[in-house]
Amino acid sequence: MDKKVLIGPFSQVVPMTKLPLKGALPDEQLMLIEDGGILMVNNKIAEVGSFVSLKPKADIIEFIEGSAVCLPGFIDAHTHICFAGSRAADYALRNAGKTYLEIANAGGGIWDTVTQTRKASEKILIDRVRDHSIHHLKNGSTTLEVKSGYGLSVDEELKMLRAIKAANQQSKVDLIATCLAAHMKPKDWSGSSEAYLDLISESLFPILKSERLANRIDAFIEQSAFSPKMIASYFKKAKAMGFDITVHADQFSTGGSQVAVDFGAISADHLEASTEKEIALLSQSNVIATALPGASIGLGCDFTPARKLLDAGAALCIASDHNPGSAPMGDLLVQASILGTFEKLTNTEVLAGITCRAAKALNLNDRGSLEKGMLADFVTFPTNDYREITYHQGQLKPHGVWKNGTKVF
Which residues share a beta bridge with 79? Predict the structure, then answer.
């Protein structure tokens, strides 16, 4: 018979349950369990409630000493942590007044990282992904999405995705792979953008399925990458093969949100350039709107209009966009807290954006909240008031992280 393990008592358990997927979330909707506990069987949650009421049901008790607030493990639904090299030169040029497109046209930007990532071995990339995932784990993230997109050829994209798969097998964090071969047209590709996309869909997509490397297809809809018209056939093929769709949308210009809605994408990510039209489109759809405040901080541009999206009825996820170019910080809680300050988000909206709503942005139904049947992924902070977590804007660090019921940090 499987043992029932009780962890607690926690000053507060914040289960992130009974919250709607879409729309604004006043803090009055947030459930708090004082002096709570989590009862687990194997890697799943059996029950969440008061510690005293759960004690008689437990075979084993693991006591928590001192003040502790417990939340679901964070879910970072958009990262690019599989890469080689650095883009410190880009950062300096941006701060000196150069634009993102000017830097890209001068040989920097995404292509710089492509060049360095192509030179790296698969082993080096495995090590980099694993090291980045450890960093995120210590900051409370127990699930990370990881994109390819710095290979931009069939062989190099396969190298990246195989590295992500191998790193996942070595990591304590769950890594969810996304194929972003449509990040930009490779500069060493002599044909048209459409021909490149045809090559990827015809040659790479079947291998993704046969090797189970990714079930998510992403594309960058932007002037420097692919237009809505160019990407239509590519996404049609992806949908026909059963892939989930996600879109880099409205970062510098609009058009991507419409594509996301038209193709029933799981999420539309970035949205810094979204106008009232795009906000209405997203709010009237089932597409998750994913804000990436790390990119806004890194580029010095406007934040995603998170407040307007929520008030219009959209579902808002918040992710780090951890990448070597525009978002090198890679600290989800810092970025989410800062977004909350500038966009006037409630604590519940911020926390939902990195837990329960973030799970939906990855089409995951087994995590993001603390309730019966969910994975026992949770994080604790050394305080007796959950509001301290965003108040310190990410500087109050976790003092415990559990993954699948095991304390891993």
Answer: 322
- Give me the residues paired with residue 175 across strands: 144
Residue 82 and residue 163 in contact, taking contact as beta carbons nearer than 8 Å: yes
Regarding the domain with residue range 4-72+368-407, which homologous superfamily does it belong to in the CATH classification? Answer: Urease, subunit C, domain 1 (2.30.40.10)
Cα 177 from Cα 215, distance rounded (Å): 7
Q: Which two tokens stand for residue 215?
A: 């079930």
How far apart, in whole angstroms, are the C-alpha atoms of residue 143 and residue 81?
13
298-303's contacts with Cβ under 8 Å and 24+ in sequence apart are 298/91, 298/325, 298/326, 298/327, 298/328, 298/329, 299/94, 299/100, 299/326, 300/94, 300/95, 301/272, 302/272, 302/273, 303/272, 303/339, 303/342, 303/343
Q: Please list the residue range(s) of the chain that carry CATH number 2.30.40.10.
A: 4-72+368-407
* H-type alpha helices, 96-121: 100-105, 109-119
Alpha carbon separation from 327 to 7, 78, 165, 344 (Å, rounded): 36, 11, 23, 22
Report CA 202 to chain centroid distance, whole Å. Answer: 28
In the block, residue with structure tokens 């990591």? 171
DSSP letters, 122-139, are: HHHHHHHHHHHHHHHHHT
Which tokens is 268 given? 């539309």
Amino acid at 23: G
Q: Which CATH superfamily is domain 75-361 in?
A: Metal-dependent hydrolases (3.20.20.140)
The one-digit pLDDT tens for each residue of the chain (409 residues) are 699 999 999 999 999 999 999 999 999 999 999 999 999 999 999 999 999 999 999 999 999 999 999 999 999 999 999 999 999 999 999 999 998 778 888 888 999 999 999 999 999 999 999 999 999 999 999 999 999 999 999 999 999 999 999 999 999 999 999 999 999 999 999 999 999 999 999 999 999 999 999 999 999 999 889 999 999 999 999 999 999 999 999 999 999 999 999 999 999 999 999 999 999 999 999 999 999 999 999 999 999 999 999 999 999 999 999 999 999 999 999 999 999 999 999 999 999 999 999 999 999 999 999 999 999 999 999 999 999 999 999 999 999 999 999 999 9
- The answer to whether residues 141 and 73 touch, using CB atoms and an 8 Å cutoff, is yes
